[in-house]
Amino acid sequence: MAQKPAIPKGTRDFLPDEVARRTYIFDTIKSVFKSYGFAPIETPSFELSTTLLGKYGEEGDRLIFRILNSGEKMKKADLEALQSENLARFANSLAEKALRYDLTVPFARFVVQHQNELSFPFKRYQIQPVWRADRPQHGRYQEFYQCDADVVGSDSLLYEVDFVQIFDQVLTNLQIPGFTIMINNRKVLSGIAEVSGESDKLIDITVAIDKLDKIGEDGVVKELKEKGVSDKAIEIISPLFKMNGSNEARLEQMKSFLKDSEIGLKGIEELEFVLNQTKELGVERAEVVFDVTLARGLNYYTGAIFEVKAHDVKMGSICGGGRYDDLTGLFGLSGLSGVGISFGADRIYDVLNELNLYPEDTNAGLTLLFANFGEKEAAYCMKLTKKLRQVGVDCEVYPSAVKMQKQFKYADNRKVKFVALIGEDELNKGQLQIKNMESGEQQAMTETELLHYFKA
User: CATH homologous superfamily of domain 365-455?
Assistant: First the structure.
C-alpha cells in the first residue's frame, strides 16, 4: 500500500488562490520599500554553519536547521567529541552548512564580502524564506518568509524614523485596521541592568522581561531568580513592569530611574528623538508606544528595538527589528552601523485571512476561456489566443470537445470572467459569442471587435 503523502510539520502548501494572496502582500511591501529608496538583493538559502552559529544567542542556535554532510565529508565526523560527550562539537563536525535562520546575519556577511562593490549608506530589501527548528503552533512555522529592509553605513536616527513610517504605511496599505508599533532601546535595557547592579546579567534580564506579556510578572520574577539575579535587583526592576501613561510620561519616569546611568540616558535621548519626529510626521493607523520591557531575544541589537502587533487577532508580533551597531564586525568589518526591520509575511497572511481583508480582485481568475467544439474550431481558437496574449490578455482553449456542462463547470472553478463560444455556425459567419460569466450576458463579436474589446 502506497504511503500517504505528507509534508513536515511547520510547513505549508499554497494553492493558486493562496499564492495570489501572498503575492499581493509581497507586492505591497515591495512597493513601499522601493518608495523609500531600498534596492533588492538575494542570498543563498543555506550558509556555512560558522556564519550563523553564535549570532542569535543560545536559544537561537538551538533552532538552526543543520544540513548533514554527505559523501566523503562524513568521514570527518569528530568521534572523539562524541566519546567525550561534547555533543555540540560533534554536531558541528557533522554539519558544515545550515539553513539560514533569518536574513540579517546573511546580509551582514553579504556586506562584508561585497563591501568594495557597494555605496554606503547601503539600503537593501530582501524577500526570501528562512527556517527555524521551532515547535510548530498557531502563527509559528518552521519555514516562513521574511521581508526585510536594512540600512548599513550610517548611525543617523532618521532611519529609525523612516522605519516607523514604513511599518505604518505597509500595514495601512494592507488595510489592517489597528496595530501597535512598540519601540524600546537596548541602551535603556543596559541602563536598567547597570542601575540594578547586575550589568553582567544583561542578557538574562532582557530575555526574562521580554516575556512579560506571555508569562506575567510572577513568571518573570521566577525566571530572574532562576538566572541568579539578586532579590535586591528584582526589587529595583519590578516597578518597570507596571509602567503606563503616555510616551512622554514613560520617558520622564525612565529619566528618573536611569539618572545614574550614562548609557541608559543616551538610550532615552535616542528614543525621544525618534518618538518626537514620528509625532511631528504623524502616522495613519499605528499606535506608537514606548515599551520598556521590549527586548526581543536576539543578541545583536545595540540601539532601537521595534516590534509590531495587530489588534483583534490572537497572534504574536507580525513585524520587528532594531539597530545593530557592529554586526558586520562579526565578519571582520568593524565600525559599520546598521538598522533594519522585518515583516513576517506568513503571520501577516494569517491576519489578513482571519480578518478577511483581501481586495476582491486579489484572487482574479482567468480572463478568457475558449470553449472547445471540435478540432477545426479549436485550431482557430488557438490562433486567437496567440493574438490576445500579445496584447496582454490571459486566455486558454479548453483541451477537449466534451459536453458544455463540463466546460462551464471548469470555467466556474477557475473563476473565468468570459467564455468564448465558437461553433461551426460562428466559424462560418466569422463571429463568436462572448459570455460574461458574472452577469450571464452574451454578445456576438467579430475577431477584430474581440481584440479591440479586450485591449480596451
Answer: Anticodon-binding domain (3.40.50.800)
Peptide bond into 121 cis (omega under 30): yes
Q: What is the dihedral angle through the alpha carbons of 442, 445, 449, 451, rounded to the nearest 10 degrees? A: 70
d(CA 292, CA 314): 22
Give 395's DSSP letter. Answer: E
CB 183 within 8 A of CB 290: yes
DSSP 183-211: EEEHHHHHHHHHHTT-GGGHHHHHHHHTT
Measure the CA dihedral 171/174/176/180, to 10°: 0
- 88 confidence band (pLDDT: 50, 70, 90): low
Q: Are 201 and 382 in contact (CB under 8 A)?
A: no
Cα distance between residue 327 and residue 302, in whole Å: 9
Smallest CA-to-CA distance from 92 within 58, 57, 67 is with: 67
| Residue of 125, 133, 129, 134 whose CA lies nearest to 144 | 129
Nearest to 396 by CA among 404, 388, 364: 388
Model pTM score: 0.87
Cell of 355: 480578518
**Model confidence over 161-219: pLDDT tens digits?**
999 999 999 999 999 999 999 999 999 999 998 988 888 887 888 888 888 777 877 88
The pLDDT tens digits for 230-244 are 888 888 888 888 888
CATH superfamily, domain at 16-44+101-355: Bira Bifunctional Protein; Domain 2 (3.30.930.10)
Q: Which of 430, 194, 186 is nearest to 293 (CA)?
A: 186
Instruction: Tell me the pLDDT tens digit for each residue of 335-349.
Output: 899 999 999 999 999
**Which residue(s) pair with 148 in the sheet?**
126, 342
Partners of residue 288 on adjacent β-strands: 181
Q: Where are the domains of the chain?
A: 16-44+101-355, 365-455
Contact in structure between 437 and 412 (CB atoms under 8 Å)? yes
- Check residue 246 and report its DSSP letter: -
